[in-house]
């Protein structure tokens, strides 16, 4: 085997120079691992211990797994349908779970190899046959006193990191056996061998953390940590390795955010102080309700930020219906009073049009300056979307460029060339996570000086997530609902177990419509064409039927349980003018039921809608369900949300729905959501699907560590803002949080 000179191999050395070309190609094509550093940062997903069990009973059919188990017995018998013999090997996990391994063909050597008592790692896809879990023809490696099968131990027969099938499995000599995220073509033991070669060959990298920080926080050196996470001798060694590498991740993210916040604080901005006799005061005087204490507090925070000579960078988070829009509008009016313009960027045309109409209604004559019934001291509103006709677009852009429109509401169309502002003073971004940093910067760039920025989200954010994802923003939170908002009752409807409950749900919807109210029916998919009831119920290859679709469900409801009701359809594939028309018709009360996708998830405000039925509710995320149900109960009548599912009692999907039904506390649900999905989706992985180096940190379990990293990052940036005295640290941060991942952090 040919490898690099130990003195010259570095983290950026290509793997083909270290483990052989064929193995390197497999690692690259199946796991996106190209360099020594990529492999060393491909951490084990778990560690098995010889003599301890893997919970075989928890394995799911269709899952690609690696199981540590002990051979219990072997059985050879002739095959019925063809010549040859079938070898069945029963593997146990020490806790009552058993798994059958099946091998076809005459392979007497396997029977000798897989003798009872042997421990091994077995990798393959879980299937089920006559009620028994099994792996068909799995790859495997035997531990301690023997060898693996040739196909598993030497996956591609190449040179490089593979060892001959006759050698001892050195990778698993310790008590803790690393199990890596793997692929069928690259099992975990092949990865372990490659890691051993790289650890023994590559020069340990320079430690980027300042020595004083390592000492004060009792952190291992980086080289020690990388060796310890892959080849730990003890649990204590593994803990110290993981703790150090988590620190690197948390510190890199916090340094990035603290640096961004530090730079933004140095930018100049035009102060927009509050006036006591302007539009804002007139607006407050005509509000038909009293602001909540939370809205008043947020108002003071925003007003103080706008009055400074540095740009406001504030996140406003609040439950669905907590009154964020009114807070944003009051800030916009303060900027208009100071001679500037404010722009609200919304993610969809439906939401932009609704914001525009809602603000016009709230402002009344104050928003119709220049019209017959307008207030001469008021301002004008402009709506800029991609579907505007040429004449309407030209008129809107003229009012924006001239400064006549003090408040501009729009979609991505606001970012295009040709949309010019006279004096853009404030940018409000609604549903911040729907926009990327380039889009926000494109709108910022339309101002002569950096404008003030307020970003809003109705998705409740746990504290550690806010600190890690929005750490460059000041945060305001609205936690109370305005007076007059009604409670929302939520119930799970187990359609498979109790079909009568689903029938009752449709009756309940009809009762609400008969009482003069309206309803939503939400489906996970748009669908291309109508389907028959048989097709809707048909199962796919995985045993699951496809998700229900708007195009399929709407006609079935119209001909069935909702016959005679006025039903509309809304989804993202409709032309913009048709979407707006449907929404207007529903808002006006001319439709009884709106069958829709999650296009209604954000910002749709129809106070007369009191009931929502979510079909295939288990196909939605926790936060998404919470957002959806916030569309009902927005008026004086109580809201009802029915979560329809075929998930059986005790299944994880059902437990998730039970949790949503049990509480309306969005922050508790946000934590639950985070617990139940991969945190890399929140923290590190990019939307383009690229690998992330941020993979150990848990935003819930490591809250204390994140707080400590935040404090150290603030102290270091105050002393050395651009990390000029810490070049190795700057390079490490750039590797862990590259430009694309930094954008992901801003997207949230």
UniProtKB/TrEMBL annotation:
Keyword Hydrolase found: yes
Record GO biological process: DNA repair
SUPFAM superfamilies from the UniProt entry: Nucleic acid-binding proteins, P-loop containing nucleoside triphosphate hydrolases
Residues of the Helicase ATP-binding domain: 305-478
Listed GO MF terms: ATP binding; DNA binding; DNA helicase activity; hydrolase activity
InterPro entries: DEAD/DEAH_box_helicase_dom (IPR011545), Helicase_ATP-bd (IPR014001), Helicase_C-like (IPR001650), NA-bd_OB-fold (IPR012340), P-loop_NTPase (IPR027417), RecG/Mfd (IPR047112), RecG_dom3_C (IPR045562), RecG_wedge (IPR033454)
Chain segments annotated as coiled-coil in the UniProt record: none
Gene3D superfamilies: Nucleic acid-binding proteins, P-loop containing nucleotide triphosphate hydrolases
Signal peptide per UniProt: none
Domain of life, per lineage: Bacteria
Annotated ranges, domain Helicase C-terminal: 501-675
Keyword annotations of the record: ATP-binding, DNA damage, DNA repair, DNA-binding, Helicase, Hydrolase, Nucleotide-binding
PANTHER family according to UniProt: ATP-DEPENDENT DNA HELICASE HOMOLOG RECG, CHLOROPLASTIC
Name recorded for this polypeptide: Probable DNA 3'-5' helicase RecG
Organism: Plantactinospora soyae
């Amino acid at each position: 085997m040919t490898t690099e000179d130990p003195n010259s191999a570095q983290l950026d050395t290509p793997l083909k120079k270290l483990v052989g070309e064929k193995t390197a190609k497999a690692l690259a094509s199946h796991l996106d691992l190209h360099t020594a550093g990529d492999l060393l940062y491909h951490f084990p997903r778990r560690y098995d211990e010889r003599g301890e069990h893997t919970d075989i009973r928890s394995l799911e059919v269709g899952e690609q797994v690696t199981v540590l188990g002990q051979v219990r017995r072997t059985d050879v018998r002739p095959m019925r349908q063809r010549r040859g013999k079938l070898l069945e090997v029963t593997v146990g996990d020490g806790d009552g779970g058993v798994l059958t391994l099946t091998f076809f063909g005459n392979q007497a050597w396997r029977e000798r190899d897989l003798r009872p008592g042997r421990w091994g790692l077995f990798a393959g896809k879980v299937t089920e046959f006559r009620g028994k879990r099994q792996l068909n023809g799995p790859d495997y490696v035997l531990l301690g006193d023997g060898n693996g099968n040739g196909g598993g131990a030497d996956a591609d027969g190449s040179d490089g990191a593979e060892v001959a099938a006759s050698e001892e499995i050195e990778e698993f000599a310790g008590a803790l056996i690393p199990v890596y995220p793997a692929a069928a073509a690259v099992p975990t033991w092949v990865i372990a061998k490659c890691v051993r070669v790289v650890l023994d060959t590559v020069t340990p990298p320079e430690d980027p953390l300042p020595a004083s920080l390592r000492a004060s926080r009792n952190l291992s050196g980086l080289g020690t940590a990388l060796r310890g996470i892959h080849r730990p001798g003890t649990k204590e060694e593994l803990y110290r390795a993981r703790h150090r590498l988590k620190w690197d991740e948390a510190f890199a993210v916090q340094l990035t955010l603290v640096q961004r916040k530090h730079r933004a604080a140095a930018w100049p901005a035009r102060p927009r102080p509050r006036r006591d006799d302007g539009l804002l005061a007139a607006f407050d005087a005509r509000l038909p309700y009293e602001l909540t204490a939370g809205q008043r507090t947020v108002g003071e925070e925003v007003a103080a930020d706008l009055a400074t000579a540095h740009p406001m960078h504030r996140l406003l988070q609040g439950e669905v219906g907590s009154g964020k829009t009114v807070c944003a509008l009051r800030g916009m009016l303060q900027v208009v009073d100071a001679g500037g313009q404010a722009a609200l960027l919304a993610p969809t045309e439906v939401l932009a049009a609704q914001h525009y109409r809602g603000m016009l209604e709230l402002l009344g004559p104050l928003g119709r300056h220049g019209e017959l019934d307008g207030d001469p001291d008021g301002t004008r509103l402009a709506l800029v979307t991609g579907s505007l006709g040429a004449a309407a677009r030209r008129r809107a852009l003229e009012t924006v460029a001239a400064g006549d429109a003090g408040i501009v509401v729009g979609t991505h169309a606001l970012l295009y060339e040709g949309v010019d502002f006279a004096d853009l003073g404030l940018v409000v971004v609604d549903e911040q996570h729907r926009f990327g940093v380039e889009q926000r910067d494109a709108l910022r760039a339309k101002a002569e000086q950096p404008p003030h920025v307020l970003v809003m989200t109705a998705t409740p954010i746990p504290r550690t997530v806010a600190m890690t994802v929005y750490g460059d923003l000041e945060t305001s939170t609205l936690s109370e609902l305005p007076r007059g908002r009604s409670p929302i009752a939520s119930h799970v409807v187990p359609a498979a177990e109790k079909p009568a409950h689903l029938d009752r749900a449709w009756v309940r919807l009809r009762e609400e419509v008969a009482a003069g109210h309206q309803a939503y029916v939400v489906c996970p998919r748009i669908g291309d064409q109508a389907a028959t009831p048989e097709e809707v119920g048909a199962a796919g290859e995985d045993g699951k039927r496809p998700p229900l679709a708007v195009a399929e469900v709407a006609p079935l409801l119209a001909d069935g349980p909702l016959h005679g009701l006025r039903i509309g359809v809304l989804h993202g594939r409709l032309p913009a003018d048709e979407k707006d028309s449907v929404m207007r018709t529903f808002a006006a009360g001319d439709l009884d039921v709106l069958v829709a996708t999650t296009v209604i998830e954000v910002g749709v405000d129809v106070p007369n809608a009191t009931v929502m039925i979510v079909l295939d509710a288990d196909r939605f995320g926790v936060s998404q369900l919470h957002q959806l149900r916030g569309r009902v109960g927005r008026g004086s009548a109580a809201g009802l949300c029915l979560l329809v599912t075929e998930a059986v009692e005790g299944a994880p999907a059902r437990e998730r729905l039970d949790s949503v039904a049990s509480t309306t506390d969005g922050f508790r649900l946000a934590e639950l959501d985070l617990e139940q999905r991969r945190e890399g989706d929140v923290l590190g992985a990019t939307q383009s699907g690229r690998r992330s180096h941020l993979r150990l940190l848990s935003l819930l379990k490591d809250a204390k560590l994140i707080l400590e990293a935040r404090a150290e990052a603030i102290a270091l940036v105050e002393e050395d803002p651009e990390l000029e005295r810490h070049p190795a640290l700057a390079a490490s941060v750039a590797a862990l949080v590259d430009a694309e991942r930094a954008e992901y952090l801003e997207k949230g």
